[in-house]
Amino acid sequence: MRFVTRLGVLGALALLAWPAASFATDMRGVTATEIRIGQTMPYSGPVSAFGALGKSEVAYFKMVNDHGGINGRMVNLISLDDSYVPPKTVEQTRRLVESDEVALIFSSIGTAHNTAIAKYLQSKNIPQLFVGSGASKFADLAQYPQATLGVQAPFRYEARLYARYALAKNPNAKFAIISQNDDFGRDYLLGLKDVLGDKYDSLVTGATYEISDPTIDSQIVKLKASGADVLIIAATPKFAAQSIRKVFEIGWKPMTFLSNVAVWVSSVMEPAGLEAGIGILSTAYVKDPMDPAWKDDPDAMRWRAFMAKYMPNDDLRDQNFVNGYNSAMVLEHVLKACGDDLSTENILKQAYAIKDMDLPMMLPGIKVNTSATDHVPIDQMQFMRFNGKNWERFGELQTGN
């Protein structure tokens, strides 16, 4: 009789345990002690400067793990080099999903690159969170239901602000734009069209470059010949530096706007020549740790302490490290909110339910918000101007939505 009773108790316990065991199998990349996440980064290739984002995100989760991880689990961020080549992005992402069995893809860099892996990740039911791109296409819920834009101002919004500012200063302005020949560059064209409307074709002269091009000198000469008095440089760091230098060398003096993905003093303004960049305009949404305004700011001091401990040999002037820190903090928030339910469904639910989140290294007043119908975490920025040494912010926060 005792034997039968024991069997009954064991059977009841097994039935109680069954749903949990079954549920655990749905949480890929998750064990009792680990959460595996993956990303691709251009640690080599033409935009290797962006590798700083991956380095800082890996370092951030090392800090998180040193403090006990997330809900008792260590975060294992597997960050692979794709050389900024979309086919290699696909190859490395397949490895992350099929060999490493990651729970999600986080902050992979590049518009074309995230586009190349989106359908595959959807077919595997893998979240594609906080993509390393500000391309507005990733806010299209129909095409990218499991993705969110990066924790950065969208490119299209940025271009709208540049066009509005230029027209406010000169209603008869003519525009020239140098842009990367892909969806990253095309988003800036779309932003200009949003503002200029049916005048776009008569007011804008464009030139593009490929990431394999050695220089963009001929494109800049062509744009000067158009007679434009406004120049928008929608380029990654290497080509941004070349553009600034060539404009200076040929004596062209348009009102110049620089994409905020290429405002780094160490990797863009210095290679271009600090004098060449004086007066250039751009936008900011994060705190520049070199700005005297943040010298005694407690949050900036904590960021500098993080850098000193986890990335002691890296350049504090590179705001990519700030962007990586911010993005990793948002993902940490999402994973904490998931609790022990790290299923794809709950990860996406929490990623799309961020409400007025303050990030310590975001400019005051800018908050992170997402919802089931809004996958754009950040939509505000502030204008800034380069003074030959650093960037000076001015004016109120602006939105380009």
TrEMBL record:
Key words of the record: Signal
Gene3D superfamilies: 3.40.50.2300
Pfam families assigned to the protein according to its UniProt record, in alphabetical order: Peripla_BP_6
Name of the molecule in the record: Amino acid/amide ABC transporter substrate-binding protein, HAAT family
Organism superkingdom: Bacteria
Similarity field: Belongs to the leucine-binding protein family.
Domain Leucine-binding protein: from-to ranges: 34-388
Signal peptide annotation: 1-24
Organism lineage: Bacteria, Pseudomonadati, Pseudomonadota, Alphaproteobacteria, Hyphomicrobiales
